[in-house]
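2024-03-11 09:14:02 INFO worker-7 job=invfold-0412 stage=load source=structure_tokens
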């Protein structure tokens, strides 16, 4: 059980990803983050072009609009921001640049970067990752369907407590939905794996050949 102990009462949680499409597993992570009353805002950031993955199936603007539709129907929408920062910047999306900008805009807040274990394991390959860990903590969601999370020696693991000190990380196994965006794109799962607002947008705009 994760205890949400924090050194800050003003946390900005940044959740970046391709979100191609945004599914119930992503939503469950967002909801878990928002359960922490010290999270003042959850900033969800769809990337423009993934730096370490294949290009998205749908356009950045469609992925952005799907997230906006989801936010508009969420009961905590006042604490959620859908950010265009990486889409406006263009080119490959680098988390360090994004987090730096958000930190500069929220100087009184602590920044925590939200991610899945697959992204976490690739952290040493990220652009400017050593600079990123100096300004952000990490909230890593681990699912049984993913690879085991690595213990990066340059970061300090928090044992069952959420700490916003830069360079620390928490492994959170509270979300374990067996869903992936790739399965949805390949029609291995149906629309029940998506929030209803996302389903409606996909149908209306005939995305993913549907």
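2024-03-11 09:14:09 INFO worker-7 stage=emit residues=210
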């Amino acid at each position: 059980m994760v205890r949400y102990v924090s050194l800050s009462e003003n946390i900005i949680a940044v959740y970046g990803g391709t979100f191609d499409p945004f599914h119930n597993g992503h939503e469950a992570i967002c909801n878990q983050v928002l359960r922490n009353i010290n999270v003042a805002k959850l900033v969800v950031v769809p990337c423009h072009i993934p730096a370490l993955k294949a290009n998205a199936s749908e356009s950045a603007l469609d992925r952005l609009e799907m997230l906006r539709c989801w936010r508009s129907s969420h009961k905590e929408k006042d604490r959620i921001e859908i950010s265009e920062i990486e889409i406006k910047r263009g080119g490959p999306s680098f988390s360090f640049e994004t987090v730096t900008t958000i930190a500069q805009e929220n100087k009184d807040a602590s920044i925590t970067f939200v991610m899945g274990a697959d992204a976490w394991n690739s952290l040493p390959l990220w652009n400017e990752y050593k600079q990123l860990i100096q300004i952000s903590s990490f909230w890593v969601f681990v699912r049984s369907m993913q690879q085991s999370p690595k213990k990066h020696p340059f970061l300090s693991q928090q044992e069952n407590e959420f700490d916003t000190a830069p360079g620390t990380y928490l492994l959170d196994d509270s979300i374990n939905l067996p869903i992936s965006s790739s399965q949805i794109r390949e029609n291995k799962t149906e629309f029940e794996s998506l929030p209803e607002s996302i389903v409606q947008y996909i149908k209306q705009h005939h995305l993913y050949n549907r």
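2024-03-11 09:14:09 INFO worker-7 stage=report msg="The first strand starts at residue 11 and ends at 17."
2024-03-11 09:14:10 INFO worker-7 job finished
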